[in-house]
């Protein structure tokens, strides 16, 4: 069942159906939290949905995308086809983090907890990290 859900999430991701991709990836992750592939899909879904949010909320979504992708790298075997794209994504996501000034104006300090408010990452709790 976990492999089927992962396959569904990958097909949905390819078709840019980020909501269904994230939903299937979460289910796959819940069935096997030690598999990095669902986190890889979640990271991509979170990042892809950030542009629809716009502004600070969209930028903050990249914190959740970064977290998911970092977890994917931690769990994926070193020879996985996903490792190199995941590593490249981390730098890309970090470049989209809100800067220190934007965090300040939103009354957020580095290291504080933040709950993402939009996109496929809505409800995900992450850590404030200015660019």
Write the layout of secondary structure elements.
Elements: H1 2-14, H2 18-31, H3 37-53, H4 55-75, H5 83-95, H6 100-105, E1 113-115, E2 125-127
Antiparallel strand pairs: 1-2
InterPro entries: TPR-like_helical_dom_sf
Characteristic key phrases:
globular, 2 strands, 6 helices, mainly alpha, TPR-like_helical_dom_sf
Describe the 3D structure.
With 131 residues, the protein is mainly alpha-helical. The protein has one domain: Alpha Horseshoe (Serine Threonine Protein Phosphatase 5, Tetratricopeptide repeat), CATH 1.25.40. The protein has 6 helices and 2 strands; from the N terminus they run H-H-H-H-H-H-E-E. A two-stranded antiparallel ribbon has the order 1-2. Helix 1 (2-14) runs parallel beside helix 3 and helix 4 (55-75) packs antiparallel against helix 5 (83-95). The protein starts with a helix and ends with a strand. InterPro entries: TPR-like_helical_dom_sf.
């Amino acid at each position: 069942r976990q492999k089927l859900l992962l396959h569904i999430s990958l097909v949905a991701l390819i078709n840019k159906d980020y909501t269904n991709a994230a939903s299937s990836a979460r289910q796959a992750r819940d069935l096997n939290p030690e598999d990095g592939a669902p986190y890889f899909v979640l990271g991509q879904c979170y990042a892809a949905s950030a542009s629809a949010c716009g502004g600070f909320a969209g930028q903050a979504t990249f914190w959740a995308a970064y977290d998911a992708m970092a977890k994917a790298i931690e769990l994926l075997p070193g020879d996985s086809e996903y490792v190199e794209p995941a590593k490249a994504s981390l730098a890309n996501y970090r470049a989209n983090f809100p800067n220190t000034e934007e965090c300040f104006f939103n009354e957020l300090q580095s290291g504080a907890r933040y709950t993402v408010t939009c996109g496929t990452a809505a409800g995900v709790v992450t850590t404030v990290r200015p660019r």
